[in-house]
Amino acid sequence: MKLLVRIICASALVFVIAASGFSQTEKVDPTRFQFGDQVITIPAPEDFEEAASQFPTVKNVMTRTEAQGNDMLAVHLPHADCEKLRAGESVAFNFYTKVSARSAIRESDYPAAHFAELIAEFRKTRTQVLDVNGAEMKSLLERLNQSLSDLTKSDAKVDMNQPIYLGEFDTRPNVYSSMILMTIKSNIGDGGKDTVIAAGLTFLRVKQRLIYVYTYRRYESKADIETVRDFTKKWVGQILAAN
Predict the structure, then answer these.
(1) Phi and psi dihedrals of 127, rounded to 5?
(2) pLDDT in tens, 44-56
(3) Biggest alpha carbon distance in the chain?
(4) Is the pTM of this model over 0.70?
């Protein structure tokens, strides 16, 4: 469980980086992923497209913020951002998604009972795991500072205020979504300016497999919380319908 919550915090730190734009065409299907004897379809959200399969810089950044032992499957950016990247421009990660899975259990069935236990454990331990003064979170920030320094070729310094848990917002069968609000401080990107992020975490059971679905949006007003909630619920519904 500590691993799962660390992932959502780690991936949020890409808000301090701008992706440079150049495309790379890969002979892959960016929507279909093999999970043992199952194929899971991850359709792009409305007005978004899969970006990791197109842009090496996006794939590099998102892979570096993925937890060890996880497979990073897909990253989605708005069409407008992808158009800028295709034109060779740089974009900030203001609104994006990420989908991943645990390598060790990717090919195995994930029973409904295990899914219920996962949710119960998350509810029980989230306060402890999200403690910004805890050893786990401090260790996370140290590793990420090193990764960001390597990416930006600078002495990157990133810190995080205590995340605020905003509660559950989608608890359908095989779906569990919750949201946190994070404030990130960095000496890169906006030059030390605080960046507030609304981040959604969804545990999703599809075709007897477990995947993690993350949604991130720069927070400017309370409307952004509603946007993340509604966007995530709609997209998760689309994923379920596609499978």
Answers:
(1) -65, -45
(2) 999 999 999 998 8
(3) 48
(4) yes
